[in-house]
Amino acid sequence: MSNTISVIxxxxxxxxxxxxxxxxxxxxxSIIEIIVVDDGSDKKSQKILSHLSGIKxxxxxxxxxxxKALYRGLLASRGNIVVFVDSDLIGFTPRHLQLxxxxxxxxxxxxTIGDIxxxxxxxxxxxxxxxxxxxxxxxxxxxxxxxxIFSAGGYVDGFLxxxxxxRLFFGKYKIAKVLLDGVGAYYKICKYGISxxxxxxxxxxxxxxxxxxKEELKQLKFIRSINYLK
Length: 230
What we know:
The protein has helices at 18-26, 43-50, 66-76, 94-107, 121-126, 128-131, 140-143, 149-152, 160-169, 188-192, 194-211, 213-225; strands at residues 5-11, 31-39, 56-60, 81-84, 89-90, 111-118, 136-139, 175-185. It has one domain (5-225): Spore Coat Polysaccharide Biosynthesis Protein SpsA, Chain A, CATH 3.90.550. The longest helix has 18 residues, at 194-211. It is an alpha/beta fold and 230 residues long. The mean pLDDT is 89. The protein is built from twelve helices and eight strands. The protein has an eight-stranded mixed β-sheet with strand order 3-2-1-4-7-6-8-5, sandwiched between helices. Helix 11 (194-211) crosses helix 12 (213-225). The protein is 46% helix and 22% strand. InterPro entries: Glyco_trans_2-like, Glycosyltransferase_2, Nucleotide-diphossugar_trans. This is Glycosyltransferase 2-like domain-containing protein. Residues 6-119 form the Glycosyltransferase 2-like domain.
C-alpha cells in the first residue's frame, strides 16, 4: 500500500504566525491534505484562516485545548501517516517534513519525533525539547488505537498530550528522533510578554504534576538514549 500523508496543524490565535507554515506545507508534493483545526480563535484569526485556500479547515466554536484539536484533526484525516505540526514554527520547510516521515516510510519506524534546533540550551541538553515536541509523525492506525490520549491531556498551552503519548509509546513502539535543523518557534514571551514567560514555567510545573517526577525523568532518559536518525 502506498503511503499517504495528512498534516494536522492545531491553531489558537496564531494569525500572525500561521501563514508561513501553511505556505511551506503547500510546497510539499507528498501531502494529500493539510488540516487546520482552529481551536476557538478570535475573529481576526478566524477571518484569516477562512481565506486560506488548499486546506481543510475545522473550527471549534470555543477553546477546547490542544488535545481535542489534534483528535478532531486525526478523525478527519485520510492519510495512513499523520503528521502533527505546531502553528508557530519558524524556518520549517518541505525538507523538514520529509525528515519526519522518512523514518516511517523508508526505515519501518512507527513514529518520529522532531527536535527543533533553535531553542534554549537547557531544554536541548535535558532532552526536554525533543521529549515534549509537538512536531511528530505517526502511523495513523497506531495512533487511532489510543483515543484516551486525547482526553488525558487537554491543557491548551501544555505538553500533556505529548506526555501521554510518550507514556503509551516509549519502549513499546519503534521510535525515531530527528533534528529539525534551522527550525525554531516563537517563545511565549514574544507572544504574550512577561505573562507568556511565566506561563512557560507554569506549563512545565503542570506537566510534572501530571506525570510525577519518576515518569518524567523516565521519559527524558528514554528520549536522550535515542540518537538522531540521519
